[in-house]
Amino acid sequence: MTEAWRPDDEDERRGAIGPVKVRVPAKVNLHLGVGPLRRDGYHELNTVYHAISIYDELTARRGDTLALTMEGEGTGELALDDSNLVIRAAHALAGYAGVLPHARLHLRKQIPLAGGLAGGSADAAAALVACDALWGTGLSRDELAGIAADLGSDVPFLIYGGTALGTGRGEAVSPVLARATSWHWVVAIADGGLSTPAAYRELDRLRDSGAAGAPLGSTDALLGALRQRDPRVLAGTLGNDLQDAALAMRPALADTLKAGEAAGALTGIVSGSGPTCVFLAADAADAERIAAELTSAGVCREARVAHGPVVGARVG
Ligand code: C5P
Fold first, then answer.
1. Which residues, listed in sequence order, are joined to residue 268 by a DSSP beta bridge?
2. pLDDT value at position 180?
3. Which residues contact 97 (CB under 8 A, 6 or more apart)?
């Protein structure tokens, strides 16, 4: 599974194309409105995605087969075989473009596994962009997003990045008009992940038993807040229908949310299906201070600062 990483490959010495390095961000959902369960097992979503500056990096080199190695978050836990979304993405692109799926891929992960930050989806998006460049298949971003939709609901967004509205099961994305402002976030990473399907099932169970909170309304207030520069206004508009489910599955997250707000965050929410919590800070200095307080309070494995929006999967 962990074949040796050979940086100076014969192909490269001969001047053949490669390596191609792609950086891809994590995402948070500023609004995650979950509708009813559909017949295909997915829920209808009304969400606003936001790409933040925590990155995975995928390097693609020429090879005689398709192979994946990795380092960083999740090493030793994440299967590197055909079940891995990176390998599935490479196969999907090769099938679409009619080329052989040959590449040596190396993943440097900083986005935690099963954290609610779409790390696996980000890696799939990176694989599409990297292999497209390595193989010279020259697909447009929209074509890559079309392939991405079959790999996972969040994958198309990570091809584009920025801030975008997601509908359908989340795979239909359109950019959101926003001011050219950077928002400052603190990302509290928990020990261990949460299963996304389990979080959706828990939400269904809470709703069936009448224990769920009222579903989020429209995204209008959030979209308005994104057109101005005051983080206090934005703070009042964030929301996540999966938060109650994540809290029911991991009650300790309530302490993390409380600690962030006590440390001066404008607001905190669970990211996606959790267990990562994200906090909006007034500015970069505040974000640093809140991250340090969260770390010393012992309410998370690690707290990192990030800003957003940032672009999606890009070569370079
Ligand atoms: O699309 P993706 O493979 O990332 O989804 C993982 C799981 O999350 C799905 O199998 C489903 O259980 C749940 N999900 C959902 N509704 C969505 C997106 C995901 O129920 N819109």
1. 279
2. 81
3. 132, 135, 137, 139
pLDDT digits 0-9 by tens, 196-228: 999 999 999 999 999 998 999 999 999 999 999
Measured in Å, residue 160 CA sits from the centre of ligand 1 at 20
What pLDDT does residue 16 have?
Answer: 54
Task: Tell me the CATH number of domain 183-308, given options 3.90.360.10, 3.40.50.300, 3.40.50.970, 3.30.70.890.
Answer: 3.30.70.890
The SS3 call for residue 281 is strand
200 lines ligand 1 (CB under 6 A): yes
Topology of the domain comprising 20-176? Ribosomal Protein S5; domain 2 (3.30.230)
**17: phi then psi, degrees, rounded to nearest 5:** -65, 145
Band of pLDDT at residue 178, cut at 50, 70 and 90: confident
- Please give the backbone phi and psi of residue 39, each rounded to the nearest 5 degrees, phi first: -65, -25
- For residue 42, give the 3-state DSSP assignment: coil
Judged by phi (left if over 0) then psi (alpha if -120 to 50, else beta), residue 114 lies in: left
Minimal CA–CA distance to 242: which of 273, 217, 219? 273
Nearest CA to ligand 1 atom 9: 197
DSSP type of residue 182:
-
Distance CA 256, CA 22 (A): 32
Q: Where do the domains of the chain lie?
A: 20-176, 183-308
- Ligand 1 atom at minimum distance from 120 CA: 4
